[in-house]
Amino acid sequence: MKKPQRAPSFCSGCPHNRSTRVPEGSRALAGIGCHTMAMLADPLTTTTVSHMGAEGVMWLGQQPFTSEKHVFANLGDGTFSHSGFLAVRQAIAAHVPITYKILYNGFVSMTGGQSVETGLSPRQILATLAAEGVQKMAVVTDEPQKYENVSLPSGVMVHHRNELDAVQRAFREYADVSVILYDQPCATERRRLRKRGKWEDPNKRTFISAAVCEGCGDCGTASNCMSIEPLETELGRKRQINQGTCNKDFSCVEGFCPSFVTVEGGQLKKKPQAPLAGPGSPRLEWEGELPPPTIAPLTRVHSVLIAGIGGTGVVTIGQTLAMAAHIDGYFSSNLDVTGLAQKYGAVHSHVRWSPRPDMLHATRIAQGEAQSLIGCDLIVAASDESIATIDIAAGGAVVCTDIIPTAEFARNPGWGINTDALIAEFRDKLGERALLLEGQRLATTLLGDPVAANMFMLGAAWQLGQIPLSLNAIEQAIELNGVAIAMNKEAFAWGRRAAVNLALVEDIAKARRPSQILQFASRNRPTVDEIIGHRVGHLREYGVKALESRYLELVKRVRNVEASVSTATQLTAAVAHNYHRLLAVKDEWEVARLYTHPDFRAALADQFEGNFRLKFHLGSGPFARRNKATGALEKSEVGGWMIFVFKLIASARGLRGTWLDPFRWNAERKLERTLLQQYERDVDRMLTEFSSDNVQLAVRIAQLPETIRGYGHVKERHAKQAAEQRRQLWDQWSNGANPKDRATQLTV
Questions:
Q1: Least confident window among 148-157, 194-203, 471-480
Q2: What is the DSSP letter of 263?
């Protein structure tokens, strides 16, 4: 089995998510810095990395022998101050058509966030380059207003970051050296400074209405942000914002989707409290003391491998264990294998301790030496490297089974992994010595912060006797760390409880769980009857009486024909899910209904408290606008008063489809009617020609609407892609081909 990999990626809100992009048809040369990871995101448009100070040098050798007219070269401000200035000078001397993008974020972020040594400001960098002879330059920034009173070299224009594509298109036509200075501070450093009160922290957050979301992924396309995570619901995969990792860049709002709401004022809800079980009943809570684990005196080296995601506190857990071992009088070592792991990549912390120093011969845990694996992330923990370290005969593991998406999710809305296979490997190798639990979900629900998950996992491992250290030593180590002491101690305690009675901890978490009505909690797929029942209920709320009978009639026909050929229900399930999507489209009437439904306010109340204001981001009707520089359709920000307009629209949704429907004849509604009629014809043909030989092909055709997601031009683009897939599938059908399991089936 080919296992998924957790490659490093830009942090949430990182300016390089935008600054490293180039227009279609252009290529960028990589340089030294975090921005080098652009080669991982798109190896076709960012190529050829150099050593520090030689950014773009390779173009001098390539340019005379290629038909390519121009390239971009990425150059960080720290590298520019170190030696990158020499690279620009050589390009100026050679008069080659190249645009240096100087990525100014104010920090040497890749190696720890140090300040840039020279401290050159953007104005000073541009003045220096102007003195060297660069005649075409521009500034692109997320805050154009901060340049209002800044004296820049003659001809230098300041643009908002939304205009980067247009600026680059203009610069690539220039026949000599040009410079675009992209000014946006490092997201991680801004976050750190905000925590210390040294950087303005906007009292504003982004929220996605799961009901309105179509799961199209355009928000990920706009932002490439790792804080946008999948949310599995009964209606399919949606999106949610991880408020714990969000760095408030707000690029995701630019995705062409009305599901984004910005919440201004108020604050994130603190740790949820368990509700009363009934009138006069006590809260559902843990009662009684926990039994201490049996810990034998240590007579040899004990090795623990902690496997997780960079930037989430894996190294902190390793340091906590090493300090606790020291407090208990042992000799310890810890080795953190990070690389670019602080950027959402895989990280391993090797911790070893022993009663005598001469027993510690190496800091890295070798194959089969780990007595315990603390898996803070399933993908990293299940990697061959991690599993190889476990002592299969006697070792144990505590593994977090929540699925945290990789960087691929931002680029592929249908991203997924076979979690069952990864979990099964631990069960096969370790049996009862492996504790598998959703630590992220439990820690977030019980403690209000996903950051607590790693300490939660450590508590479970300690309670199972896999960590031969005293409770007193671990608590002292937590105190010495000096960060979120109370929360970390409580997380450790909840992990212990989960190891003793996971069912009770789950019940307590369930009592506290935010009431996300659409959340599909079960790992098991719904039955056909459950799908049909849920969709019929939704069609009743939708507000068009004729749709329910229309839906049931077609689904019944499909079910009867499929039953005559096979005992399977794949086709019926596919039609039950996808026909509903085409009938209950999210038009303006439905979006208004969903925003006025009590579930929307309940979902907001689950995450936020205090006095807050809402702003909606809409791109239809009077709220659609064209970007002056690119011509692309964009959304407008609309105040909280829009909720009253939504109420009026929702109350009048009986006009939907009539001659009084003001939305009836726009391009999106016409497309939706065409897709519905086409799907009904496709199903009619499938049922007429259905046989045991074309079952899988029929299922794939029936699943096509699942790929037509989004709003406006996003939906139109997906519809074109689906049309091509449909053509190919019907060609196979006509030729009698049956692909069976050759292609990956979409999940219903």
A1: 194-203
A2: E
pLDDT tens for each residue of 96-114: 999 999 999 988 877 777 8
For the chain, the C-alpha Rg in angstroms (whole number) is: 28
- Strands 346-354 and 98-104, by their bridges, are unpaired
For the stretch 574-593, pLDDT in tens is 999 999 999 999 999 999 99
* Beta strand residue intervals within 434-499, DSSP E: 434-437
The closest of 589, 671, 704, 685 to 258, measured between CA atoms, is 589
Identify the burial level of 275 via C-beta atoms within 10 angstroms of its C-beta, where 0-12 means exposed, 13-18 middle and 19 or more buried. Answer: exposed
Task: Report the C-alpha gap between 572 and 38 in whole angstroms.
Answer: 43
The Cα 106–Cα 141 span in angstroms is: 13
- Burial label for 481, CB within 10 Å (0-12, 13-18, 19+), is middle
Highest mean pLDDT among 41-45, 105-109, 194-198, 347-351: 347-351
**143-160 tens-digit pLDDT:** 999 999 999 999 999 999
Q: pLDDT tens digit string along 58-82?
A: 999 999 999 999 999 999 999 999 9
Distance of CA 181 to the CA centre of its chain: 28
Number of H-type helices and E-type strands within the chain? 28, 23
Contacts of 629 (CB under 8 A, 6+ apart): 159, 162, 163, 165, 166, 167
Rounded Cα distance between 454 and 67, Å, is: 53
**Are the C-beta atoms of residues 209 and 603 closer than 8 Å to each other?**
yes
The answer, yes or no, to whether residue 726 has pLDDT greater than 70, is yes
CA distances, 311 to each of 9, 109, 478 (Å): 11, 13, 18
The stretch 606-615 carries a mean pLDDT of 93
Q: Nearest Cα to 460, choosing from 443, 485, 478, 435?
A: 435
3-state SS string for 272-314: CCCCECCCCCCECCCCCCCCCCCCCCCCCCEEEEEEEECCCCH
Distances (CA, A) of 588 to 119, 355, 390, 625, 718: 51, 69, 55, 17, 20
- Distance in angstroms (rounded) separating the CA atoms of residues 651 and 331: 71
397 touches 305 (CB < 8 A): no
Transcribe 579-602 into DSSP letters. Answer: HHHHHS---HHHHHHHHHSHHHHH
CA–CA gap between residue 222 and residue 216 (Å, rounded): 12
Q: How do strand 46-47 and strand 28-29 relate by DSSP bridges?
A: parallel
Q: Report d(CA 68, CA 80) in Å as an integer.
A: 26
Is beta strand 260-268 parallel, antiparallel or unpaired with respect to 204-208? Answer: antiparallel
Q: Cβ(254)–Cβ(223) under 8 Å?
A: yes
Query: Do the bridges between strand 636-638 and strand 608-618 make them parallel or antiparallel, or are there none, so unpaired?
Result: antiparallel
Q: Give the three-class secondary structure for 207.
A: strand
Beta carbons of 70 and 172 less than 8 angstroms apart: yes
Largest Cα span, the chain: 87
Q: Is the pTM of this model over 0.70?
A: yes
d(CA 602, CA 598): 6
Q: Is 476 helix (H, G, I), strand (E, B) or coil?
A: helix
Q: Are 20 and 105 in contact (CB under 8 A)?
A: no
CB neighbourhood size of 532 (10 A): 22
Structure token pair of residue 54: 């030689």
Q: How far apart (Å, rounded) are the C-alpha atoms in residues 242 and 239? A: 10
Phi/psi of residue 17, nearest 5 degrees:
-55, -30
Instruction: Please give the structure tokens belonging to residue 593.
Output: 């209904």
What is the C-alpha to C-alpha distance for residues 212 and 263, in angstroms, rounded to an integer? Answer: 16
CB atoms within 10 A of CB 608: 18
Q: Which two tokens stand for residue 676?
A: 């519905």
**DSSP for 31-82, written as a single string:** -SSGGGGHHHH-TTTEE----TT-TTHHHHHHGGG-S---EEEEEEHHHIII
Classified as helix, coil or strand, 398 is strand
**How many CA atoms are closer than 13 Å to the CA of 354, on its beta-carbon side?**
14
